[in-house]
Design goal:
Blueprint (H helix, E strand, L loop, with lengths): L5 E2 L2 H9 L14 E6 L4 E7 L2 E9 L8 E2 L3 E7 L9 H17 L16 E6 L5 E2 L4 E3 L3 E2 L11 H10 L10 E5 L2 H11 L4 E4 L11 H4 L1 H11 L3 E6 L8 H6 L4 E5 L5 H7 L6 H13 L3 E6 L7 H8 L5 E4 L5 H10 L8 H17 L3 E2 L5 H6 L12
Parallel strand pairs: 1-7, 7-11, 9-12, 12-13, 13-14, 14-15, 15-16, 16-17
Antiparallel strand pairs: 2-3, 3-4, 4-6, 5-6, 8-9, 10-11
Bound molecules: iron/sulfur cluster.
């Protein structure tokens, strides 16, 4: 039997650290407003001014990683939400500098904690939370039904940031993939939140979890959240590496505008077994994509990170079943390089490989009428507009 669910302390700790920043629901003297915040993959803030959205991410201090500012304990990174490639202007850099100063001034308010020793078990903890729906811009939200992911890809980009959140709560340091917090009251909390917010698009995507990791069959937290969203007129956009998303296909097919994306980073299941052994076989993910498409659900594909592959075969397998795709390189190369070495494919870890493969994928998808663009913009996908060009208002 599971131990009783415990209230999670993480939000209270983040409030200690960020203090006045979390009261910024009216414009500050500089005109910036707090749009949303989260503390599950490190601490992140979305700030808005006019039509600009600035995403500030607070990570554990690591001098080897690029960032905009550093404090004794943290790296402070920032980018424009939905426009990650655009450089920050001077004003935005000043805002990030002010946040770094605030963190330096308040760091002593965090308790000094000693983390329990690491064990070798996978830790599944049932928790109660007091917030689930995270706003990230007008009409856009996200929800994480769980924190942590048992699929456990070694290259997962949230791994080291999520450990900062565990450190704040004095949880044992476990490798990414070896712990999951199950938010057992997520649907109840979400029901109250959607009653107070205007309907919009809600991402259930791998921000700190995969919404259809194996535990979903036991707990059905994602399904319960989808039911709440559907009942309140919100539009979910799901992204997963798991074929068990089809468990919810009847529900998803009933929700107007619901979108489902499958991450499929290679056409070759031998590569999948080497790089993401905890994820479902490629054939099963392609089959799930086809079933969602045939059920009338909006479908998209994500080829990220581009693993060793035959790009033409991957395009041929995915293109008939997706409206658009997002393509990206491997970013967590320090953690992923041993996988490339074991696979004997260090050539596929080079910039030239990513450039060459992306060019083949873009040309192949475009030739088959599949849009290739920034799928962070789920609003455009749901509305049928060209993604990445204009964020459509949600009504
Ligand atoms: S499935 Fe997604 S969220 Fe889970 S470990 Fe892999 S990349 Fe991370």
């Amino acid at each position: 039997m599971s131990p009783p669910a415990e209230p999670r302390a993480l939000e209270a700790l983040a409030r200690d650290l960020l203090g006045p920043l979390l009261d910024l629901d009216v414009p500050s003297r500089t005109g910036w407003t707090l749009v949303g915040w989260d503390a599950e993959a490190g601490v992140s803030l979305t700030l808005g001014k006019g039509d600009r959205l600035l995403l500030v991410e607070i990570e554990p201090r690591d001098d080897a990683r690029a960032c905009l500012a550093r404090t004794e304990r943290f790296n402070v990174c920032a980018r424009r939400a939905f426009r990650g490639d655009e450089p920050l202007d001077d004003e935005e850099r000043r805002v990030v500098g002010q946040i770094a100063r605030l963190l330096r001034a308040r760091a002593d308010l965090l308790p000094v904690v000693e983390r329990p020793p690491t064990t070798h078990r996978t830790e599944v903890r049932e928790v109660t939370v007091d917030r689930v729906l995270v706003p990230e811009g007008a009409g856009h939200y996200y929800v994480n039904p769980y924190t942590g992911c048992m699929i456990g890809c070694a290259f997962c980009y949230v791994a080291h940031r999520a450990d900062l959140s565990r450190a704040l709560e004095a949880r044992p340091a476990l490798p990414w993939g070896r712990y999951v917090d199950v938010k057992i009251n997520a649907a109840d909390v979400l029901r109250r939140e959607v009653a107070r917010r205007p309907p919009g698009i809600v991402r259930l995507s791998p921000i700190v979890t995969d919404p259809y990791q194996p535990l979903e069959r036991r707990y059905r937290i994602t399904r319960q959240c989808l039911e709440v969203l559907a009942g309140a007129g919100f539009t979910p956009g799901v992204l997963t590496r798991a074929a068990r998303v089809v468990d919810d296909l009847p529900l998803l097919a009933r929700i107007p505008g619901a979108a489902v994306g499958l991450s499929i980073p290679t056409d070759d299941d031998r590569v999948r077994r080497m790089f993401e052994p905890g994820a479902d076989p490629i054939e099963e993910r392609l089959d799930a994509l086809e079933r969602c498409h045939r059920a009338g659900v909006l479908t998209f594909g994500v080829v990220q990170p581009m693993l060793p592959m035959d790009p033409d075969r991957l395009v041929a397998a995915m293109a008939p079943f997706v409206r658009c795709v997002r393509i990206d390189r491997m970013h967590e190369m320090a953690r992923a390089r041993p996988l490339y070495a074991q696979a004997g494919r260090l050539d596929a870890a080079e910039d030239a490989y990513f450039e060459r493969t992306a060019a083949r994928l873009v040309a192949g998808f475009a030739a088959r009428g599949v849009q290739v663009d920034a799928l962070d913009d789920l609003g455009a996908l749901v509305s049928g507009a060209r993604p990445g060009v204009a964020r459509s208002p949600v009504s």
